[in-house]
Amino acid sequence: MTEPLLVGEHLTRRYPRRPRPALDDVSVTVHAGASLGIVGESGAGKTTLLRLLLGVDRPSAGEVRFAGTPLDRVPERDFRQQVQVVFQDPRSSLNPRMPVASIIAEPLRSLRIGDSRSDRADRVAELLTAVGLHPDDGQRYPHEFSGGQRQRIAIARALAPAPRVLLADEPVSALDVSVRRQIVELLQELVERLGLTLVLVSHDLAIVSQLCQQVTVMRDGRVVETGPTSTVLATPTDDYTRALLAAIPRLPADLEEVPPQTTEA
Ligand SMILES: Nc1ncnc2c1ncn2[C@@H]1O[C@H](COP(=O)(O)OP(=O)(O)OP(=O)(O)O)[C@@H](O)[C@H]1O
Ligand SMILES: [Mg+2]
Fold first, then answer.
1. 44 lines ligand 1 (CB under 6 A)
2. Which of 29, 153, 184, 196 could form a disulfide with 191 if both were Cys (CB 3.0 to 4.6 A apart)?
């Protein structure tokens, strides 16, 4: 087993005027190069947990550690370079007034990666190709792309600083069913090729089983079950996990039966 890279220990997050914590004593460990899926019904605390791991929100109690160091002692720039995120809705996460090349180069500029404008242009072209777009697409604006293509742009931006960790919050649930599979396959290919550590929030257990070795099942701000995805999905020990599995019409095995899509994402 590789080193624990991103660790949340006894994380609790309370919000004002809320009697129950959104997150209640949750611990997760993500090893370098491993992949963790976080599943659970709406309001379970998945996004709250991801925001704490991303350092954009702070726990009321508990601690997040990156490569062994508490997050508040990890230099901000290092952390931003190494941990990147893809959100659910690429429409709202991409600035409509910026050409795609500038959107993708933004983390390079803000983190001062690349010595020159032409270094960054080369990197952007490489990233566009890596996500299945054309280097010339950099001149176009987000509204000129389909939902699936916009999510490809968001993935290219996240990968721009060559992070070790990719966090993703429901990265395909805003997309048409026909393009979901293509984006999941792109993520899978990139995670494997780049050796990325992945934390994926998804309510789709089929996607979690395709992308994640480990899964944590959450309910009401707590972890109800955690373990290897194949074990948890095949032999759920918790009633809630069983109910979650039963509620999802597409079970993991069915994913293979979906005919290949030819639609361009
Ligand atoms: N800023 C906030 N202020 C108050 N309560 C909040 C805030 N953000 C989240 N919550 C509450 O915390 C709980 C967990 O929310 P969270 O967004 O983490 O759930 P989730 O599992 O991501 O759900 P979904 O699947 O719908 O995205 C919910 O009860 C939610 O109402
Ligand atoms: Mg959420």
1. yes
2. 196
pLDDT of residue 248: 67
For residue 1, what pLDDT is reported?
67
- Please state, rounded to an integer, the average pLDDT across all residues of the chain: 91
The pLDDT tens digits of the residues spanning 187-204 come to: 999 999 999 999 999 988
Ligand 1 in reach of 18 Cβ (< 6 A): yes
Q: Which of 73, 74, 107, 263 is nearest to 177 (CA)?
A: 263
Q: Which atom of ligand 1 is nearest to the CA of 44?
A: 21
For residue 262, being part of any structural domain is answered with no
The pLDDT tens digits for 120-161 are 999 999 999 999 999 999 999 999 999 999 999 999 999 999
Number of domains in the chain: 1
Distance 21 CA to ligand 1 centre (A): 10
CA distance 157 to 26: 30
Radius of gyration from C-alpha coordinates of the chain: 18
3-state secondary structure 243-257: HHHHHCCCCHHHHHH
The pairing of beta strand 69-70 with beta strand 165-169: unpaired
Per the structure, the complete domain to which residue 53 belongs is given by 4-256
Q: How confident is the model at residue 114 (pLDDT cuts 50, 70, 90)?
A: confident
Gap between the Cα atoms of 6 and 19, Å rounded:
29
Q: pTM for the whole thing?
A: 0.91
Structure tokens at 139: 């001149």
CATH number of the domain enclosing 240: 3.40.50.300
Question: Exposed, middle or buried, 235 (CB in 10 Å: 0-12/13-18/19+)?
Answer: exposed
CA torsion sign, 73 to 78 to 82 to 83?
A: positive
